[in-house]
């Protein structure tokens, strides 16, 4: 659970009384440096190394292709006609 703004102010006042106002920038600077080092150690190594730029791929020239599409023949038989003589539609 995160402390609210009032709790943070109380914590800062207590820290200021314990260490003095002059030492606060030094203390928080050390805390920030520690957090940065921790984040660098926690992140995976692949996230730290930038990926090399992809090389452009040369596209081969397309050859002309002729496509022939044929439709299948539909054969329908009716109960009136014998099955050995299909009728085309």
Describe the structure in your own words:
The chain has helices at 5-19, 24-42, 45-48; strands at 75-76, 87-88. It has 89 residues and is mainly alpha-helical. It has a domain at 1-48. It starts with a helix and ends with a strand. The mean pLDDT is 75.
Going across the biggest sheet, name each strand in turn.
1-2
The total count of helices amounts to 3
Sheet bearing the most strands, described?
A: 2 strands, antiparallel
Instruction: Specify the helix fraction band.
Output: 40-55%
Secondary structure tally: strands: 2
Please give the alpha-carbon distance between the first and last residues.
76 Å
As a whole number of angstroms, the C-alpha radius of gyration is 39 Å
Helix and strand composition category: mainly alpha
Mean pLDDT across all amino acids? 75
- Which ranges are low-confidence, i.e. pLDDT below 50, for 5 or more consecutive residues? none
Strand content: under 5%
